[in-house]
Design a protein that fits this description.
The complex is a heterotrimer. Chain A is mainly α. In chain A, 62% of the residues lie in helices and 0% in strands. In chain A, helix 14 packs across helix 16 and helix 15 packs antiparallel against helix 16. Chain B is globular, with a radius of gyration of 19 Å. The chains are: A mainly alpha, B mainly alpha, C alpha/beta. Bound molecules: iron/sulfur cluster (2 copies). The site of one iron/sulfur cluster has 15 residues of chain C, from helix 11 and helix 12.
């Protein structure tokens, strides 16, 4: 790898000081540090440091997203095939899916990176690795049919309003990827819920809802029967062979990623456990006391857990450390309330079937408050020392 | 005479730009959110508010030596309220459609913080002519932001400017969609926020040195 | 023996632990007294170049407290007085004579020591230049002889992981140590002796004197950490502490009337297994660590010491040297390698699966970023502080808030900075803030 190093060393002068490309120094620096981790001696205590840095931290989130992304590509291709009436095999589905999904991811990265570099240049700081995650998370929450210009607008909004106005990664209070999604969701509702290819399963013709969450039973049918009629049996939801946003469908792949994040302790288990507990608890309460058998009130905890983007959200979005609370007790509450609000929004307001996004954003706003309360409580327990 | 002119100019610039009521003093945000979905309502609202602020400042300033300070708010409100009612009636008489869209917001000019704010902070301490100019300046400053916001919201949210479709057909065919967020109240928040950010931070535009 | 429950700390093992043999180093040509390792000192120098000094002659004193003198640990001529930036005293170097003479201080017999009154002992210690071995928490300034402390902690281990093993310097010195404890009991009603769990076996003769057992986990033996876990009320915050070696020196001074100059020290380097060294106070660094690489960083404690220049001398409080290396080659795509040989407390490298001792190097392993609120620092802080919140409070100039959250409970172990993935200098920020606060209060 000596030659690569030499190229970097040689071109460094153009990018620094009075070089021609000095404005793009942030970009140069980011590229260089990806390949060669810079050596710097410690100057203060402690004189040795852990090998984990933010690059690796964020890269591990990306790794955990690999199964979801791959399955998302496959599923998109497969759905697209079904939509046009052919059943594609594995490779074809994959190629077909790439045709839809790869451009979305590319646009998200390129446009987002443009803003990152712009702000890094103006503010004279380094490009933060947090963007790597945002740039991939955002596309995974979108339906594959979304127009690319909306992706570009969405990620711009997410990066600027969700992050840079606060001062960049580490200072934002909202999760940028979710902010971007919320923007697209409210701005272009048609693209977000509309024409996802829906398989014609014979039993129900002319279905309007795209995702399982939009299903409502007709007549005296129970919600569970309606769901399985439409191909949303628990088994399908678990493996992910259902329509939906690119990354959210397969519970199995999400759990793989979740497992990876938990084992490496990148994600905090308290948020995830709290979230699942909150969801199950709330779903059971609604199940026991709800009336309407044909709506999601009666769907029960497992369906609530597997359908829609709850697991995706709680695993990859809610655990974003910047927008989540930093104290352990607050994390339990944070997670629990996300679960609670997810079900409540789903059940109480059929207009926003996707409650997870709103629940997480809502709790993001409250995270500093939760932290503040926990810190105050802990301070009151301390033996004072002034 | 020349000094007089400069003096007025200064008040104007201060009210319209430097200490813009929405962007700098952060007053009148509520109506700025409510009436900026369309440009026509924003313009009418801007004019109405300019007139009310200008004349209320003028009247209050000319009475300033005679108002006992412990009942001044009541007096100010009486003046403002009468002006607002007159404006409202004129609108109802000549611009009925728009006045319906503005609904209670014209009536609510009474409570608009800009009017009372200028009366309290400027008119009570300055001669009538200055106060009148100050009222006009603040009214224009408010209208300026309102029209900007409304322009952006109408253009992006419904693809129109002053009610005329401006998005070319081929763009729509290619898949252009209106930005639903802009029609909702949060859209106005974002736009105002971004405008304030731009005004205060853009080098060359901003008057604040940092 | 009471167990102190400290669960959080540095659980990874590191390479380079010294073994338990002792070798005596030959007499050096120069020795020095450094002012750099003495917290808060404002020195006034008492000698000049060319002066002749004996073992025990005062070299400089502290302007804030003129009684506290720093004595010369060798007899010879003052060779040079080294100043740093803004004429800050670095060290006073003395060229040693072949034959050395002592300044005679007042001495007591063992029996007299038992019955002597407290003030007398304090006077001897102050004159003999060893009172400053007693330090006061939380700022670690010199203890005030006019005050009776709520408790004195005797730390058998010094700041570093590889600091001298107490079993070695206490071997055959049990009676001295016990005398030392009785001396401390005259000063304070409560004396706590804390020993590492793994050292108990070697310390068997002393077991009856040990009051607290601490887990074998850096920085459990840090006096700040011990105090945090045993204190019950707020007035214990100002406890004093003294290290085991210093306590022995104090006893020897009183019994012999001579300023004691010998210490046991360690040198650790990643792949060596070095023995313990019997040295004199203020030996040149080069004589302890002869072969140094160009890029090596020498510290007196990997986590909480200071950087020592290679051509300077050991300090009064320092008995450990760590030699930390840095690689010359930048690693290609380092952030994504599996990392079977990386030292980490996280679970993101394969090395966390094996219980192999890790390498210590002085690379920062990354660049500084804004805090991402991951709370890794809280997860490792032995005193259960929330470094990220304290740092943010200090950042916003809110000292009150930081103090409420326990800034002064920070024992400066450095683990929070060690683990932070954003490479924020938390411990340094806290140290600065604590020092500034202390100076303000004075
Ligand atoms: S370890 Fe570093 S990045 Fe994480 S919370 Fe603490 S200070 Fe912030
Ligand atoms: S705050 Fe940092 S330096 Fe202080 S005790 Fe905790 S881990 Fe150690």
């Amino acid at each position: 790898m000596k030659w690569l190093k030499r190229i970097f060393d040689k071109s460094e002068k153009h990018f620094s000081g009075s070089g021609k490309l000095a404005k793009a120094h942030a970009l140069f620096d980011a590229t260089k540090t990806v390949f060669f981790h810079p050596l710097r001696r410690t100057a203060f205590i402690p004189f040795l440091r852990d090998c984990l840095d933010l690059k690796r931290y964020m890269t591990f989130v990306l790794i955990s997203l690999v199964p979801v992304t791959i399955f998302g590509i496959y599923n998109t291709g497969y759905r697209a095939g079904l939509g046009s009436g052919v059943e594609l095999d594995l490779l074809d589905s994959f190629l077909h899916g790439s045709y839809y999904v790869i451009p979305i991811i590319l646009v998200s990265y390129v446009v987002g990176l443009f803003w990152e570099i712009l702000f890094a240049g103006i503010r004279k700081h380094k490009i933060s690795e947090g963007f790597l995650v945002t740039g991939l998370l955002f596309p995974l929450t979108l339906p594959a049919t979304i127009p690319l210009w909306q992706v570009a607008l969405g990620i711009s909004f997410g990066v600027i309003i969700g992050k840079e106005v606060f001062g960049g990664t580490g200072r934002n209070i909202l999760n940028p990827a979710l902010t971007a999604r919320a923007f697209v969701y409210f701005s272009y509702p048609v693209s977000m819920s509309g024409e996802i290819w829906i398989p014609n399963l014979g039993a129900v013709d002319g279905m309007s809802g795209a995702t399982p969450l939009a299903v409502a039973a007709q007549g005296n049918q129970s919600i569970l029967a309606a769901l399985s009629d439409m191909g949303f049996a628990l088994k399908n939801l678990f493996w992910g062979f259902v329509p939906g946003s690119i990354g959210e469908t397969s519970v199995f792949c999400i759990v793989l990623g979740m497992f990876f994040l938990l084992v490496t302790r990148i994600a905090n288990f308290r948020i995830i456990a709290g979230g699942i507990a909150g969801l199950i608890f709330t779903a059971i309460v609604f199940y026991l006391f709800g009336e309407d058998p044909g709506s999601w009130i009666k769907a029960g905890p497992l369906y609530h857990l597997f359908a829609g983007s709850f697991l995706f959200g709680i695993t990859f979005m809610a655990t974003d450390p910047v927008s989540a609370p930093g104290t352990n007790e607050a994390r339990w509450i944070f997670g629990f309330l996300i679960g609670f609000f997810t079900v409540t929004i789903r059940v109480a307001n059929p207009a926003f079937v996707e409650g997870t996004m709103l629940a997480i954003l809502f709790m993001n706003v409250f995270a500093p408050l939760l932290d503040h309360m926990v810190v105050k409580y802990k301070v009151s327990k301390r033996i004072p020392n002034v | 005479m020349l000094a007089e002119k400069d003096h007025f100019k200064e008040i104007l610039i201060k009210g319209i730009w430097k200490e813009n009521p929405v962007a700098y003093q952060v007053l009148g945000i509520c109506s700025a959110l409510a009436v900026t979905v369309k440009m026509s309502t924003a313009i009418v609202m801007g004019i109405a508010l300019t007139i009310v602020t200008a004349f209320s400042s003028l009247i209050i300033s000319s009475m300033r030596k005679h108002i006992p300070s412990n009942i001044r708010i009541i007096v100010e409100l009486a003046v403002i309220a009468s002006l607002v009612i007159v404006t409202d009636q004129i609108l109802k008489a000549f611009l009925y459609d728009i006045s319906k869209q503005l609904s209670i917001f014209v009536g609510l000019i009474i409570t608009n913080c800009i009017v009372l704010g200028r009366a309290e902070s400027f008119a009570l301490a300055n001669p009538p002519a200055d106060s009148f100019v100050d009222g006009v300046a603040n009214g224009i400053g408010y209208s300026l932001i309102l029209v900007c916001v409304a322009f952006i919201r109408e253009l992006l949210g419904s693809g129109k400017i002053l009610g005329f479709n401006v998005i070319p057909g081929f763009l729509v065919d290619m898949g252009y969609q209106n930005m639903g967020l802009m029609v909702l109240a949060p859209g106005a928040f974002f736009i105002i926020g971004l405008l304030v950010w731009l005004k205060n931070n853009l080098p060359g535009v901003s008057h604040e040195e940092n | 023996m009471e167990k102190v429950n400290i669960f959080k700390g540095f659980k990874t093992r590191l390479k380079g632990e010294p073994d338990l043999s002792i070798i005596k180093l030959p007499k050096p040509s120069t020795i020095a007294v450094s002012a750099l390792d003495i917290p808060f000192i404002r020195p006034r120098i008492l000698v000049k170049d060319g002066d002749k000094v004996k073992i025990g002659s005062p070299l400089f004193y502290d302007k804030q407290n003129p009684d506290i003198q720093y004595l010369c640990p060798g007899a010879g001529v003052v060779q040079k007085i080294v100043f740093g930036a803004r004429r800050r005293l670095h060290e006073v170097v003395v060229q040693l004579f072949e034959k050395e003479y002592h300044v005679e201080f007042e001495s007591l017999t063992k029996k007299a020591l038992g019955t002597a009154d407290t003030q007398k002992i304090i006077d001897i210690l102050i004159k003999g230049g060893l009172w400053q071995c007693l330090r006061r928490l939380p700022a670690r300034d010199t203890a005030d002889p006019k005050i009776q402390p709520p408790l004195i902690i005797v730390c058998l281990n010094e700041n570093d992981m590889f600091a001298p093993h107490p079993g070695l310097y206490l071997e055959n010195e049990t009676s001295f140590f016990e005398l030392g404890l009785s001396l401390l009991r005259k000063i304070s009603k409560r004396v706590v002796v804390a020993a590492r769990k793994n050292h108990l076996e070697k310390l068997a003769p002393l077991n009856t004197n040990i009051t607290h057992v601490i887990p074998d986990l850096y920085p459990a033996w840090n006096p700040g950490a011990i105090l945090f876990h045993i204190k019950k009320t707020a007035d214990e915050n100002n406890a004093w502490y003294v290290t085991g070696q210093h306590l022995l020196l104090m006893v020897k001074l009183i019994l012999t009337g001579h300023y004691p100059i010998e210490r046991i020290a360690t040198v650790s380097r990643e792949n060596d297994k070095k023995p313990h060294l019997l040295i004199r106070q203020g030996m040149p660094v080069k004589s302890l660590a002869p072969s140094l690489g160009k890029n090596d960083l020498i510290t007196s404690g990997m986590f909480s010491g200071r950087i020592i220049a290679p051509d300077s001398h050991m300090g009064f409080f320092e008995n450990t040297l760590n030699i930390l290396k840095i690689k010359n080659e930048e690693e290609f795509l380092g952030f994504i390698r599996p990392g079977t040989a990386k030292t980490t407390v996280s679970n993101t490298f394969l090395s966390c699966l094996f219980d192999k001792p890790g390498q210590a190097d002085c690379d920062t392993h990354g660049e500084e970023r804004a805090c991402i609120n991951c709370a890794c620092c809280h997860r490792i802080c032995p005193n259960d502080l929330m470094p990220n919140f304290i740092m943010k409070a200090l950042h916003g100039d809110d000292l009150e808030d930081a103090l409420d959250m326990g800034l002064l409970d920070c024992c400066n172990c450095g683990l929070c900075s060690y683990t932070c993935p954003c490479k924020i200098e938390l411990a340094h920020i806290f140290q600065d803030a604590m020092n500034a606060y202390h100076k303000d209060k004075e």
